[in-house]
Amino acid sequence: MGKLAINGGEAFRKEPLFTWPMHDQAEEQAMMDVLKSGKWWYGAKVKEFECLYADFQGAKHGISCVNGTAALYIAMKALGIGPGDEVITTPWTFVATSAAIVQAGAIPVFVDIEPESLNLDIKQIEAAITPKTKAICPVHFFGRPLDMDRLMAIAKKHKLLVVEDAAHSWGGKYKDKGLGCIGDTGTFSFQFSKNMTAGEGGIILCNDDDIQTNVWSYMNCGRWPGKPWYHMENISGNYRMTEFQAALLIAQLARMKSQMAQRLITHDFLYDKLQSVPGIETLGPDPDYSTQRSHHGMCLRFISEVWGGVTREKFLEAMDAEGITLMSGYVFPMYRMPAFLKPENLPPGDYPDYSSMYQPVVEKAVEEVFLMPQHLLLAKPELAEDFLRVIEKLYDNRQELL
Predict the structure, then answer these.
(1) Which of 150, 166, 231, 275 has a CA that sits 20 to 30 A from residue 400's CA?
(2) In this structure, are 105 and 65 located in the same domain?
(3) Which residues contact 61 (CB under 8 A, 6 or more apart)?
(4) Distance between CA 227 and CA 43 in Å, rounded?
(5) Which of 179, 211, 174 is nearest to 63 (CA)?
(6) What are the pLDDT digits (tens) for 268-297?
(7) Are 90 and 210 contained in the same domain?
């Protein structure tokens, strides 16, 4: 029997560091209130949440919907992004970002990422702009903002739209401006793994009245404000949020500030300690323009060579056996995602040859990055330190992992 739990030894932890989702009497009472009211459909609670979240993030308008994927699609359609248009975006994020572009009929154009932030490399954007480019869709990856002044200057110079994918950025600020409120639209997700959740849910933020009206229309079957119920101005689906989702999210939002403060404390504690851990590398420090941080967990790099050839996958399996469950990074750059390599999945258009693409920074991230889920940062530092102790245990016994 080895010393490591993966080989039959005793696990370091018998209980998780922190369980998710987090809820208490506030969510229970909110759900019961909706249940007993008999008003379960899109109504007062949804409108209350839209106003609360727009105010929390610093936008004029908030339009809720069923999930973050729908939010991206609705934003694209509302801005007139469609067939023949190109949208510059990142190859390193969840598929929804690029899928929404394709579902709108447009063409994703991938630009490599920065090694220190894993965000879209702003220096490479202008080289990717063509006469067909209509928009840029940045992702504030794991809550770390891009330099939005630089990005918006490029957009203004080339007359491009900006759709911020802020699905990791609840409460995050760039130079005291709310993320998701700087571009033409910003979208957020409230899926189960997110920092605030109703299981699913999404919202689109904007500051322009005309964009708000169009977003609302595409969210609500193509209806138009002030017109009869069965008068449709746009072709669209039903993406409405329910009163149950909104009630949960109102309760979740009420504790966001305190949770952000705890994640910040634990993140910074672990970040400092990890500087001396062999074979585990942090990303670069947060930039000065990130004036309010919303950590959607922590991105780290596993350096196999330092561990004597242990693979990242074996490391993650061993961490899980010891009671610390982490996640691998995205297993494909988006241009190698199987869905994008099947011509039948793509609407008519002059798509790049995704199969021939190679972007070195994202390719390295695919091999090295692993993710600490956001809810583990809600553990207080003295408890979260077990994360470091388990890594130390594995490193000291790394020969067992070969």
Answers:
(1) 275
(2) yes
(3) 50, 54, 205, 206, 207, 208, 209, 211, 212, 215
(4) 18
(5) 211
(6) 999 999 999 999 999 999 999 999 999 999
(7) yes
